[in-house]
Amino acid sequence: MSAIPYRSWGQAASAGQKAIKLVRREMPLPLDPTSAVTCLPYGNGRSYGDSCLNGGGLLLDCRGLDRLISFDDATGILRCEAGMLLCDITRITLPKGWFLPVTPGTELVTIGGAIANDVHGKNHHRAGTFGHHVRAFELLRSDGSRRLCTPTENPDWFRATVAGLGLTGVITWAEIQLRPADGAFIDQETIRFRSLDEFFSLSRESGPKFEYTVAWVDSLASGRSFGRGLFMRGNHAQTNATDPVALNGAHLRIPFEPPVSLINRWTLKAFNEFYYRRQIRRRSRRLTHYRTFFYPLDGIGDWNRLYGPRGLVQHQSVLPHATAADAVAEMLERARRAGHASFLTVLKEFGDHPAAGLMSFPRAGYTLALDFASLGPGTSALLDELDAVTLQAGGVVNIYKDGRMSAETFQAFYPRWRELAAFADPCFMSDFWRRVTAGART
């Protein structure tokens, strides 16, 4: 068993955490079904909360399952083991003219993790979630059984496992449909907006014309500047430049964890002012390498250390179109009044796609993500307030970004959780699932 300390990206950890490394997809799980010890698949640890941890139990470290099985460069269909990172897929497929159909804000996640969390990207309004592009996967259960799951074969197991947070078993391999891409660059336009009303107008205008849209919001701006930010939109550029290794890897690295968080109201106020005004013209257009466009923080190794020993928390909600404007404004104002500075405040629109999984987070509306340094009871109280605003607005909170919501709140957001519980492997458990189903009869 590994003694490596397994943590989430928000730096949550579990006492007594042990892990077993999986290295061959053909082998049975090293478990004793008669034991009371539970297990959970673990990818690359990029979930923010505790959905990837299982304190007192085992983690099944799947990073050793990282082999390419097949790739058809005529159709863009790729099959690989579940521990393969998204960056490794792109390195293979982009020179052949194919790109990920959906990608989150980091390429350092495994394909198994992308499915288990049903991740989304800047193109949800066009492409939906990652799960919409999964053609098949194999699900290995603790009893040794293996199921081929597709949207038409074992479809109920497919929908339970997509966004199932690793609770239904181990995904050993997966097959996905990639999208065509001419090169490694995005034709990007950045627009300064001065209010939330201006953001919503830009979003409505951009959706039909641009595959990728996202906005950064200055969470500390107040008065006449409240709601200002930068709106970024883009399409794959028609260019022959296909070098996928350009700008690869972290150019900077945070070498140690400071004793206190370096992300605070004073440092961020200066940063936000600079970031908003660094673009002199209201609109700018340029070719941007896909890594810069999709994964700006991947260029800073271990950037989560900036938040200090208590780590960071993220609150991400999605709010219906009808209530989003008021709810977004209220959440930004509550965070500002509470003195909590959000380092990366992201606002973007989701499209109206049927959910790929039972517990999929995205749905039609606008999603707001706020990153905070974890500062104890004050932070928890603010997050509870943001939960309440989200619930009142008819929205939901992203569960793979969560590490503290109550069982009552979770069950109000996700009333279909009992359906997932019916498919959960009896030997599988996570800190998250233990917390949000505590005391409930499944």
Topology:
Blueprint: E1 18-21, E2 39-42, E3 58-61, E4 68-72, E5 77-81, H1 86-93, E6 98-99, H2 111-116, H3 124-127, E7 134-140, E8 146-149, H4 155-161, E9 170-177, E10 179-180, E11 185-193, H5 196-206, E12 212-217, E13 229-236, E14 252-253, H6 265-277, E15 283-289, H7 290-294, E16 300-301, E17 312-319, H8 321-337, E18 346-350, E19 365-373, H9 377-392, E20 396-397, H10 407-413, H11 417-423, H12 431-436
Parallel strand pairs: 1-3, 2-3, 14-16
Antiparallel strand pairs: 4-5, 5-9, 6-10, 7-8, 7-9, 11-13, 11-15, 12-13, 12-18, 17-19, 17-20, 18-19
Helix pairs in contact: 8-9
Describe this structure in words.
The protein has 12 helices and 20 strands. With 442 residues, it is an alpha+beta fold. The strands form 5 sheets. The chain has an 8-stranded antiparallel beta sheet with strand order 15-11-13-12-18-19-17-20. A 5-stranded antiparallel beta sheet has the order 4-5-9-7-8. Helix 8 (321-337) runs antiparallel to helix 9. The two termini are 32 Å apart. Mean pLDDT is 92; it is low at 245-250.
The outline comes out as: globular
- The order of strands across the largest sheet is 15-11-13-12-18-19-17-20
Distance between the termini: 32 Å
**Assembly annotation:** single chain
Number of strands: 20
> Mean pLDDT, as a whole number?
92
Strand content: 15-25%
Stretches with pLDDT under 50, minimum 5 residues:
245-250
Calculate Rg over CA atoms: 21 Å
The main pleated sheet reads as:
8 strands, antiparallel
Helix proportion: 10-25%
Alpha-beta classification: alpha+beta
Question: How many alpha or pi helices?
Answer: 12
